[in-house]
Amino acid sequence: MAPQTHIPISANVLGTIGTVCWCVQLLPQIWRNHRTKSTVGLPATMMFLWSISGVPFGIYAIVQKFNIALQVQPQCFSLFCGVSWCQCLIYGRKWRQRNAYILLIVLLALFAGIQVGLVFAIRPAYAHGTSWPVIFIGIIAFILMISAFLPIPLELMKRRGRIVGIDFVFLAIDWCGAFFSLLSLAVQEEFDVMFGIMYALCCTIEMSMVVSHLVWMVRTRKLRQRAREAGCAFDDWPEAVEWEGRGIDLEARFRDLIGRQKEVCEVEEVEATIEADEEKRTVPKAM
Fold first, then answer.
1. CA 168, 89, 234: angle at the middle one, nearest 5?
2. How wide is the angle at C-alpha 138 spanned by C-alphas 136 and 142, nearest 5°?
3. Residue 95: CA atoms inside 13 Å, Cβ hemisphere, count?
4. Distance, CA of 166 to CA of 89 (rounded, Å)
5. Does residue 194 sit within a domain?
6. Could you give the CA distance from residue 71 to residue 196 in angstroms, rounded to a whole number?
7. Which one, of 114, 116, 130, lies nearest residue 3 by Cα?
8. Is residue 61 a contact partner of residue 194, using CB atoms and an 8 Å limit?
9. 196-218: b or e for each residue (b if 16 or more CB lie within 10 Å)?
10. Which residue windows are transmembrane per the record (predicted)?
11. Which helix (H) or strand (E) holds 27?
12. d(CA 209, CA 215)
């Protein structure tokens, strides 16, 4: 695909709307994390992968000469995802706040250096018709962006469809950002298929998350009503806890499996040591 040579005004307007949405989308989530001092249900992996994806995303947008708004978008996206990831470290893994943000600053500086270096390295070759580096960068951005959603189904399975820890205002703004960015690509002179698919998938996945939670609300309406009548929060209502506990926690099962394998290995090592000691005792000493 050749770089854009002329950007229509409509593409700039729609791209700007999408960029504004993706610049502020995570602010409600960041504020929620700060207010509740909790990131339970918000996958740290998702935030980290999204932050990393800003690097190839930015390279691709700049080299392809997308409208300015879409070039700025990944920079803001990477920054705020990084902040949210730091909150996961601080509130979820109990990191010291200073250490978490020092790590973030170092990573962002590294991201910026990589992005600038690759833009200058790829742009001349792309201008002369060598397109595979740009396509490769775009594929990396696509994979990182979409794979970041993989922890979400695990959370939904564990909580039987319930969304926990993810702010719905964030989801709504994020959906609008992807939608208007998709429209911005659609009105450009040449539609970028790869990023168009990415934006469309983001919209679809986020709508499915909302639908999942709505289904959960329908399924638990009687439970929530009984909890309210008892003056108890849903998460503290024994019947609700028992109902949600029947969810499938694949992550916990995987940890248990790894733990059992380690225990088996340790037992086998102990048994092997005992057998070796017994053999030494039974072997007669040389005269």
1. 45
2. 120
3. 17
4. 16
5. yes
6. 15
7. 130
8. no
9. eebbeebbebbeebeebbeebee
10. 6-28, 40-62, 102-126, 132-152, 164-187, 193-218
11. helix 26-36
12. 10
Note the pLDDT tens digit of each residue in 155-168. 888 888 999 889 99
| CA quadruple 23, 73, 33, 144: dihedral, nearest 10 | 160
C-alpha span between 42 and 230 (Å, rounded) = 29
Number of domain units in the chain = 1
Residue 2 has pLDDT above 80, yes or no: no
How far apart are alpha carbons 61 and 74 in whole angstroms?
A: 9
Q: Give me the domain span that covers residue 51.
A: 9-224
> Is 167 a member of any domain?
yes
Contact 142, 194 (CB under 8 A): yes
Q: Look at the block and give the residue holding tokens 């602010």.
A: 27
* More confident: 286 or 184: 184
Range of 38-42, 259-263, 269-273 with top mean pLDDT? 38-42
C-alpha to C-alpha distance for 219 and 5, rounded to whole angstroms: 52
Q: Is the dihedral of CA 188, 193, 194, 196 positive or negative?
A: positive
Asked if residue 14 is part of any domain, the answer here is yes
Q: Is residue 218 part of a domain?
A: yes
Half-sphere exposure of 239 (CA within 13 A, CB side): 11
Helices 44-63 and 68-87: angle between axes, nearest 10 degrees: 160
Q: Give the C-alpha distances (Å, rounded to integers) separating 102 from 32, 45, 99, 106, 196.
A: 22, 19, 5, 6, 35
